[in-house]
Amino acid sequence: KQEVTQIPAALSVPEGENLVLNCSFTDSAIYNLQWFRQDPGKGLTSLLLIQSSQREQTSGRLNASLDKSSGRSTLYIAASQPGDSATYLCAVSPVNYGGSQGNLIFGKGTKLSVKP
Amino acid sequence: GAVVSQHPSRVICKSGTSVKIECRSLDFQATTMFWYRQFPKQSLMLMATSNEGSKATYEQGVEKDKFLINHASLTLSTLTVTSAHPEDSSFYICSARRAGTVSGNTIYFGEGSWLTVV
Which residues of B touch A42 (CB under 8 A)? Predict the structure, then answer.
């Protein structure tokens, strides 16, 4: 059974600091891995999607890496800003799932607080 | 970009009543929609997969008679929480897969619905 773990559960950093969020998954049979942002009381905003054949994706100050064989992904945020404060979720699209493709298995998230 | 609208965003209902949550794909057709639930400080957990024109597929442990899912058109899926209890209070969110694709990068999420049962 695929399980996704995110470490740390919470992180507080001063503005301007570079930081790394970690995600691990137990089954390497995935179609892709996504990082999402969730603001309090809000839905999900997709940040980066990495296909299983890819090693990393970049968008602005965000860089996500994927090491499928070891079951790990990292989200790197450069020059953090108070507006980055949110919960960051990692999710994988499992291959070995009997239902429809498109189901995602989520981690519990890392709650990030960037202090001005 | 593609938009998925979820309504209502927040709802409070009395214990024992039923409440319906709608998930609409506004600018694309979605043959498959997914319903998730998120309890505080927990992961989003898939409840069921909704396929247009057929019965929903429920995940283990999810009561299909309590969480009724209807996907009557290519743009609308509804989740009805029947005989709601306080323990059903949670954040419910849907996602929609654009028709004609199988890759994960065409999954779009709604804004979610906060249900409080009093």
Answer: 111-112
Q: How distant, in Å, are the alpha carbons of A98, B14, B28, B70 from that of B117? A: 33, 6, 33, 22
Q: Is the pLDDT of residue B106 over 80?
A: no
Assign 3-state DSSP to chain B and report helix, strand, coil percentages, each to 5. Answer: 5, 55, 40
Taking only the tens place, the pLDDT of each residue in B34-43 is 999 998 878 8
B79: Cβ contacts below 8 Å, ≥ 6 apart = B20, B21, B23, B35, B47, B67, B68, B69, B92, B94
CB contact under 8 A, A100 and B49: yes
| Two tokens, residue A14 | 């001063």
Type of residue found at B44: L
Q: Do B105 and A49 touch (CB under 8 A)?
A: yes
